Structures are given as C-alpha cells and as structure tokens.
Amino acid sequence: MIDAQDRQIIEVLQGGLPLVPAPYAQVAETLGMNEDALLVRLAKMKSRGVIRRIAAAPNHYKLGMTSNGMTVWDVDDDQVAELGAQIGALPFVTHCYERPRALPDWPFNLFAMVHGSDRAEVEEKRAEISAILGEASRAKDILYSTRILKKTGLRLKAKG
Amino acid sequence: MLDTTDRAILNRMQDDLPLTTHPFADIADDLGIPEAELLSRLARLKNDRVITRFGPFFDAAAMGGAFCLCAMAVPADKFETVLTKVNAHPEVAHNYERTHRLNMWFVMATETPQGIAITADAIERETGIEVLQFPKLQEFFIGFRVAA
Predict the structure, then answer these.
(1) Which of A54, A153, A158, B106 has the least CB density, counted as fewest CB within 10 Å?
(2) What is the ipTM metric for this complex?
C-alpha cells in the first residue's frame, strides 16, 4: 500500500525521471522534500515492489524488432507451472504468464510474448516453444500486433 | 541510426538506475563515457522515441491496486470509435491492435482491485462490446529487456 507522500512521489514520477545529473534532487525540490528523504522513500517502495525498477522502456520497433507475437497455448493445468517456468526462462520470451481461459472461445491459459525482426523470426522462436511444450499443449495460436493504440504506463487519477 | 555506444546505453538502461545522488555519473563510469555524453545521448534516444519512457516502473498490484489484460472483439467498421472510447479511460495503460477476432488487447492498471471490474463495466456500457478479462494467475518471468 502507499501513503499520501508516496502517492505524491508517484504522481511526479509517472511521467518519467528527468535526464539531469541529479534527477532525484530535482524531483525532491518539486515535491518540497529533501533528496535524502526522497531516496529513502524510493528505496522502501522498491523493497515493497511498488517500484519494480527505474529504467528505460525501449521502443521495439525502433530497435528493428518490428514483429511482436503474443503466443498462446492451452497447457494442461497440472503441468502449466513447470512448463511456464521453462518457457519464461527462454531468452527471447519477454513476458510469460498463466491466465484464465475464456471458454468456449478462448481455450488458452499460457501466454508468452515473443519479439523478432520479422514474422519468420518470431515463427522460429514459436516453434522452439512448441517443441518444449510438446503434447502438453492441446491448442495454440499467435496474435501479432499490428498497431500500438496507446502506451502511457500507469496513470494515477488526480484525487479530489 | 544507433551506434555501438547507443546500444550499450540501451542495454544498460533497461536495468535498474541506482538510488544515488548522481546515478547517471555512476552508469557513465561503468560504460566508460562522460556523464554529459550519457545524458545527451539519452535525451536524443528519448527525443527520437527509441526510448519511449525513462523512469520508475510501478506495480499497481503492490500499491493495493490491480493490473488486468483485457480483450475485445471489435467490428472493423467500429474500430476507431471504440478505440477512442477505450483509450479515454486513464486506467487503460497500453493498448494494441492484434491479428485475431479478439482484435483489441489492452492492459488496465487501477488503484483498487475493484477498479478493474468498474472500468470494464464502463467500457462495456459505452461500447456495447464484451470486455474479456485475463488477469495473471502466475508470472513466470519478468524480463522485458531487449538486446539493442
């Protein structure tokens, strides 16, 4: 959970961290805090998992990773934990989750995101996943992204 | 075009920035370039949208809120209208068009667990289209890193 001061910090930082030599000092000044107090707060938010990391979000398209496939699999519930861990450990899988099925239309419970420079590369990687899952996967599909419709990250609503 | 230094910066900056008074100086040292060069290259990469965002990645669930992947099957002739309505919700953090009957996939991040259902209900009312919810049950890896 977060308190009022954490919330203020998040509101200032959700747009990003300034690219200046002393970014935390600048943010602290905006918040009317001192830098040490801000660093302590940020460290606590990190240890609680509220902040996962402070880092760059790369644009896959600009890096030549123009093909992005959400591979989905219907894996036996008894095996999904073990197989999911194996798929998640593959170097080319950027996200891997077990999610609920939405039957009858959506039988898939394992989602693994794969990026590549083109669809042929994504298909090669998908075949590697398929080989690992073998008969434990009863159905599969791949959904390519064709357009980024929005990408803002978390936005807290202003509290009135 | 990205040169070798840009690529080294991109790879390093996908890992955590230290909580120190001069964090970019620390990283510049590791990369063997001056701090001012690191900052100017980062500004250029951000300006060119090679980096879409630089800053903390927050976990809504750890704040007491929730994340949920959602999908909708939007008829082609209504796509732009529905998109405007869906994206108008600040809870919709990312949204992608995908090749499937379920052609709109978005992530909602809300400050309360109930926020997911409230927002999904609002979108269903506004669009008349069902919002399928796929909350994560287990997370197997959280890498995100892309080799530049």
Answers:
(1) A158
(2) 0.79
